[in-house]
């Protein structure tokens, strides 16, 4: 088995073991994404500042999935192919 296949299996197993958490992440991300991609009437400097923070929070939330995937990859032992 090559390293990539091992990573895929490990990732699938981890997601299956923590399905409720991944499902919650996905629902929250989809809900937030709907509002990030639409226009928002921003009339004051305060509302614009909050909007910037909201978008940064969305990006951070989205990066959690990528971080989880790279964290999984780091836990795998190196492939010993000859």
Topology of this structure?
Blueprint: H1 3-17, H2 19-36, H3 45-75
Molecular structure report:
The protein is mainly alpha-helical. The chain has helices spanning 3-17, 19-36, 45-75. It has one domain (3-75). The chain has 3 helices and no strands. The longest helix is centred in the last third of the chain and has 31 residues, at 45-75.
Spatial shape: elongated
How many H/I helices? 3
**Helix and strand pattern:** HHH
Structural class: mainly alpha
In summary, what is this structure?
The radius of gyration is 18 Å and the shape is elongated.
List keywords for this structure.
single chain, 82 residues, mainly alpha, elongated
